[in-house]
Amino acid sequence: MKSLKRSLNNKLMAAVFIVPSLFIFINVVLVPFVMGLIYSFTDWNGFKFAGSHFVGFTNYAQIFSDTKFMTAFGLTFKYAFFMIVFVNVIGLSLALLVTSKIKTKNFLRSVYFLPNLIGGLILGFIWKFVFTKFFVQVGDMVGSDSIFFDWLDHPTAAFWALVIVGTWQMAGYVMIIYIAAIQSISDEVLEAADIDGAGKWYRFRKIVFPLIMPAFTISLFLTLSGSFKQYDTNISLTGGGPYGSTELITMNIFNTAFNLNQYPLAQAKAIVFFLVILIVTVTQVVISKKREVEQ
Amino acid sequence: MKRTATRYRNIALEVCAWLLGIIMMLPIYIMIVNSFKGRKEIFTNTFGLPDSWSFAFYAKAMEKMNFLTAFKNSLIVTAISICLIIIFAAMTSWMLVRMNNKLANLILLVFVATMLIPFQSVMIPLMQYMSSWDIPAIGFSMVNTHYGLIFMYIGFGLSMSVFLYHGFIKGVPVALEEAAMIEGCNKWQTFWKIVFPMLIPITMTVGILNLLWIWNDYLLPSLTLSSPTLRTIPLSTFFFFGEFTIQWNLAMAGLVVSIIPVIIFYLFAQKYIIKGVMAGAVK
Fold first, then answer.
1. Which SUPFAM superfamilies does the record cross-reference, listed alphabetically (chain B) (predicted)?
2. Which residues contact B248 (CB under 8 A, 6 or more apart)?
């Protein structure tokens, strides 16, 4: 009898600890996700679901004939690619700088990390001024507009503006991850290499680099998913312009839903977007993990 | 001989590092100096220091963007969301680790597996679903209210937080908890008196990571909050900037004001922020 009561009590306690979280989580994430999955196969009008019809893969088929989406899709891949390269090369270089023997490393570390604290939206606005006003003025002063012109007014340059601002934002974050990895390498290993007469570059390539491979996996993952999900700097810096040439996937989904009111099509795009992120990031993590083991 | 070479190399490195730092801070500098300049001055000189340091644009920008209200809103939403995320995630994770049966593993799997779902994939149905939670008679509504927004932040913040807590709690020994239970504490008391204090390091990490995200988030509040008086800082910055892009000095002053809270927080909590990011990434 007593043990029955206790087991009931235990179950009740477990429920008190778990049910509130689960309730919120299910209603905010899981239910909308399943709803979205269903909606993407219907002609839902965005308001009442009752009265909507099942239309099979019509919305998904329409995605492929949506040239704007396909462009945004390609652009997002290009953006993610350059972000991965720049963010990680710069982030790792900054990490090496502030773990070297320079005197002001703590201060500089804080400076490098600072842009990351300012949200993507505000960062985009700051840079908007830099590109449209400061650049133009410098161009006038130098008397050449080959580099210093209004970048946001030119499709290719506007894309690179997005990459620059994105790098400026994320490099400090991955720097912290690389610093953690570099600091965990024991001094003895490095001293042993010095005694054996290993050069700096050799030491980096053969000892430091393999030991920070796990940090590499995480940083690649974060830059990859972060770049795919980029929305804030896109909307504040270029707003998708000029002439819709810098619209990334997230902005295309948003516009399809809330400006064009094509909700089921937008939802189908959102599901495709999820699958792409899933496939790309899982592939990346599996490959990186495999390399970690081999090293 | 070798020593001087190393010394020169260190000086070169230091110069490089400073140059990089200066380049990275350049946009911030440009934003600040132009927030003091008149229209004409911006037109001719965006780089130099301003002729006079007048805070007139600041006063006007703060008034136009309703800064104090926005700051209060951001503070309320962020602080309550983080506290509740910490409480719920810590309690749930601890129970899941200690139950350690099939059900617990399944629940954990559900939390963790959904971490990859991007916000865009759920936002459209979420808005429709949350607007249906609405009881006009008592004025209850999940959209256009702070508590509705907080509810959604908790939902989105739980995955990663449960994941981090779960990983940490697995390494916390059970012995102390068992001793407390023998002394007559029930699970509730054991958790709050014994377990929760031991979780402080990971609680800091969870708090910091959620703070960086929620404070700066723009998209979710832009979808749920329609009343101007409820706007958070990113939201009011967005509307303000759209309205005053022609008046760059005002726009810059507005931007400076909106990042001041972050900078002040950074000055005081820098150590914890960097530690939090490091610990969060190792998992």
1. MetI-like (SSF161098)
2. A129, A133, B34, B42
Q: Could you give the dihedral angle defined by the CA atoms of residues B264, B266, B268 and B273, in that order, rounded to the nearest 10 degrees?
A: 160
| Facing B120 at nearest CB: one of A116, A225, A250 | A250
SS3 A42: strand
Neighbour-count burial of A281, counting CB atoms closer than 10 A to its CB (0-12 exposed, 13-18 middle, 19+ buried): middle
Q: Does A115 sit behind a cis peptide bond, omega within 30 degrees of 0 on the bond before it?
A: no
B212 at interface of A, judged by CB pairs closer than 8 A: yes
Residue type for position B272: Y
Top pLDDT among A198 and B260 is at B260
In CATH, the number for domain A67-294 is 1.10.3720.10
pLDDT for B248-261, tens place per residue? 888 899 999 999 99
Nearest residue to B13 (alpha-carbon basis) of A200, A133, A275:
A200
Quick: pLDDT tens for B77-116.
Answer: 999 999 999 999 999 999 999 998 999 999 999 998 888 8
pLDDT of residue A137: 87
A8 vs B contacts (CB less than 8 Å): none
- From the list A294, A284, A116, A117, the residue with the least C-alpha distance to A216 is A284
Which chain A residues touch B95 with a CB distance below 8 Å?
Answer: 13-14, 17-18
pLDDT band at B187 (very low <50, low <70, confident <90, very high): confident
Q: Which fold has domain B65-244?
A: MetI-like fold (1.10.3720)
- The secondary structure element, H or E, covering residue B134 is strand B134-135
**Does the pTM exceed 0.90?**
yes
Query: Would you call B21 and A129 a contact, using CB atoms and an 8 Å cutoff?
Result: no
Closest by CA position to B244, among listed A128, A294, A182, A186: A128
